[in-house]
Specification:
By secondary structure, the protein is α/β, with parallel strands linked by helices. The protein has two domains: about 160 residues, Aspartate/ornithine carbamoyltransferase (Rossmann fold); about 150 residues, Rossmann fold, CATH 3.40.50. Helices cover about 35% and strands about 15% of the residues. It contains 13 helices and twelve strands. It has a five-stranded parallel β-sheet, with helices on both faces. Strands 10-9-8-11-12 form a five-stranded parallel β-sheet. Strands 4-5 form a two-stranded parallel ribbon. Helix 2 links the parallel strand 2 and strand 3. The longest helix has 14 residues. It is globular, with a radius of gyration of 20 Å. The site of phosphoric acid mono(formamide)ester has 10 residues, from helix 2.
Length: about 325
Amino acid sequence: MKLFSSVNDITDLNSLVAEALQLKQNPYAWQHLGKNKTLALVFLNPSLRTRMSTQKAALNLGMNVMVLNLDKEGWALELQDGAIMNGTTVEHIREAAAVLGQYADIIGVRSFPGLKDRDEDYSENIFSKFVKYCGVPVVSLESATRHPLQSLADLVTIEELKTKQRPKVVLTWAPHVKALPQAVPNSFAEWMCKADVDFTIAHPKGYELSTDFTQDATITNNQDEALADADFIYVKNWSAYEPYGKVFPGNEDWMLTNDKLKNTNNAKVMHCLPVRRNLELSDEILDSENSIVIHEAGNRVWAAQAVLKRMLATL
Ligand code: CP
């Protein structure tokens, strides 16, 4: 595998999930694969889970890891081709990406959207330029529109904990105080549409996601109706796709509570984290046995390790 940026880079989803679960049982079996190979993780935005789980995954595979917080520690990046760089930017992404490719065998990149210009964000300008100019395999650590390592870990978690062949999985919008990207829900929707699950999305009016990602999912504005008989509930806030990046007032009653779990199939509750307690998700849920958010975050290691293992195999 030379690129991991979406579910479309995977031809055998079930075997990738199975591989992640095998690695969980036997984390150090492939240490020889990463010997003398280097992973560079490049962050243009903050991270706890993605940073630590991907490092851990690489170390399990015997790799060396370097981390660069490019937004804080690197030179100010110029993205525009043909720019006369007489302003604040110091280094063009063409050189920055190409130089990083001289130091690493695989590069991971995190680049969030600006949430101002939808066309710019959905063109994946920054991530695509890293891929184009670095010359080595690239794994997305969350781009403007997708978070595939998170979605793989989510699918691994569902596969591991499901109690029926085809569980009902509900992605439900949650309140927040600021505009958040659509990357996690886009990605989760895209992966669930390819998985063997009964998938529903619930959100208040105005928070429709792009149909490029929601595809044939059942979509409703009635949260109670969506949650009925759910086996897994994925809680996540996102800002509007149209008008882009907008947050509408109200909808605080969309926060998941124990009362809302009553009509579910004793649903397991997921969230990619970080989560704002008692805004997105109540204490009573997060501290209950229904919450599997820590287990889910733990599975980030095995998802990343499965992807890196496949990339190492093609070097
Ligand atoms: N879920 C997730 O990607 O967490 P971080 O932003 O902390 O990496």
